[in-house]
């Protein structure tokens, strides 16, 4: 059973509907008990990093999430804001993130852009498998068939991942400069874009997550 976490950050029904379109049954989880019953978890969301973490805290969901993701090794996918929350912290807020991935969230740096680009980054963008993912064996297999050469996904964000190690980055895109569009570490992955708004490309990636078997154990620090 896939459980989509409801912590007041929206974007839940569209994720549920897209999963339904590929034949994957998904329920909404908004209590600790529902988190503990989940076999797979999706953390969606749009909005502010601080508000997102506050929503998880106010609903008492963080201990259950840590137990299922870090200890039990339940596969988790973060989407957009939900992806950012799996990092340690964000320049958008003083709140500490879930810290499941060795990365921080940083604002787009317009000084690095040879040609100025509008921020937030909104709309469709070509996205590709990173060189590190291609060389990392099992994780490469997850994305090989799900991310074709012409893959494009829908983005709406002003911040992006800054990972400690390049092998954590599995997908890349460009907005003024290249940035990490997808990350994976242990049994956790995150997409900065919205697969639920990305038509056939998004369906293929969600199917890849549904089929993903990351192995026993939870998040391993220092091992992607």
Molecular structure report:
It is a single chain. 29% of the residues lie in helices and 26% in strands. It has a single domain, classed as Class I glutamine amidotransferase (GATase) domain (Rossmann fold, 3-Layer(aba) Sandwich). A 9-stranded mixed β-sheet has the order 2-1-3-4-11-10-9-6-7. Strands 5-8 form a two-stranded antiparallel ribbon. Strand 1, helix 1 and strand 2 form a beta-alpha-beta unit. The protein contains 8 helices and 11 strands. It is an alpha/beta fold.
User: What is the helix content?
Assistant: 25-40%
The largest sheet is:
9 strands, mixed
- State the fourth-level CATH superfamily: Class I glutamine amidotransferase (GATase) domain
- CA radius of gyration is 16 Å
The CATH topology name reads Rossmann fold
Note the main attributes of this structure.
alpha/beta, Rossmann fold, 9-stranded mixed sheet, 29% helix
Summary, kept brief:
It contains 8 helices and 11 strands.
Sequence-ordered SSE layout with sheet pairings:
Elements (H helix, E strand, L loop, with lengths): L1 E4 L6 H10 L4 E4 L2 H5 L3 E4 L5 H10 L3 H10 L4 E4 L1 H5 L17 E5 L13 E9 L1 H4 L3 H7 L7 E6 L1 E5 L5 E6 L3 E8 L2 E4 L7 H13 L13
Parallel strand pairs: 1-2, 1-3, 3-4, 4-11
Antiparallel strand pairs: 5-8, 6-7, 6-9, 9-10, 10-11
């Amino acid at each position: 059973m896939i459980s989509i976490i409801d912590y007041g950050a929206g974007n839940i029904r569209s994720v549920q509907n897209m999963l339904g379109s590929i034949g994957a049954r998904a329920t909404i989880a908004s209590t600790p008990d529902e988190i503990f019953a989940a076999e797979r978890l999706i953390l969606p969301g749009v909005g502010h990093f601080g508000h997102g973490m506050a929503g998880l805290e106010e609903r008492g969901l963080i201990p259950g999430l840590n137990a299922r993701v870090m200890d039990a090794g339940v596969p988790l996918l973060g989407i957009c804001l939900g992806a950012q929350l799996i990092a340690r912290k964000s320049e958008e807020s003083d709140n500490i993130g879930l810290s499941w991935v060795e990365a921080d969230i940083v604002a787009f740096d317009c000084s690095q852009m040879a040609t100025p680009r509008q921020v937030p980054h909104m709309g469709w963008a070509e996205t590709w498998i990173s060189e590190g993912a291609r060389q990392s064996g099992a994780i490469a297999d997850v994305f090989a068939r799900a991310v074709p050469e012409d893959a494009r996904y829908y983005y709406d964000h002003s911040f992006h991942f800054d990972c400690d190690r390049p092998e954590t980055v599995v997908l890349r895109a460009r907005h003024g400069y290249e940035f990490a569009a997808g990350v994976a570490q242990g049994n956790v992955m995150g997409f900065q874009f919205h697969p639920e708004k990305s038509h056939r490309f998004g369906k293929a990636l969600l199917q890849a997550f549904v089929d993903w078997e990351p192995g026993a154990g939870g998040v391993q620090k220092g091992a992607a």
